[in-house]
Amino acid sequence: QVALLDIDICGPSIPKMMGLEGEQVHQSGSGWSPVYVEENLGVMSVGFLLSSPDDAVIWRGPKKNGLIKQFLRDVDWGEIDYLIVDTPPGTSDEHLSIVQYLSATHVDGAVIVTTPQEVSLQDVRKEINFCHKVKLPIIGVVENMSGFVCPKCKKESQIFPPTTGGAEKMCQNLNISLLGKVPLDPQIGKSCDRGQSFLAEAPESPATLSYRNIIQRIQEYCEQHQEKII
Length: 230
Description:
alpha/beta, Rossmann fold, four-stranded mixed β-sheet, 11 strands, single chain, 2 domains, 230 residues
């Protein structure tokens, strides 16, 4: 049982990617009911509270923090095995709030996503530093858009050249796990726009295989982390 909480308050894209655009949150005696993609996957996002997906959310920190607290307190997830929190890029109010509110729950850790070029790695190093400062464990780093294999000639091209060694070199320098590299696949963007599962639509894609390996490594990490707590 998986719960997906979207706390990208100003840019909630999860409803679109999950095929849930236009859905609304319902209240019951036990709280807000998440919107379900499948029986074992529930979603909550500020996107469900907007009258239109084009509406801008222009909120300062305290109002964002209040909604995040309400999501954690009032959503009736039921019994879940994993809570996945999707955050915006950077180290802003949303990140501080979620770490603070979940501090007593023994969070397994953060999965940090980057692209290979140095301009992205600069921001990611700041996020890693943030995790260290707030004592949030780092499960590992995922390198997204890592090369492109032409479907016709099968030649691999680096669309975003790793001029300083990419995520692999950064992880070596900082002693952090590299969970995997996800190659560029145009089908990923198409699947997200249609709100359909890329893994189901392209089961043989190199990106799908990479996703599955990354998921397995995260599950193994979480299981080991829970054993240490127990």
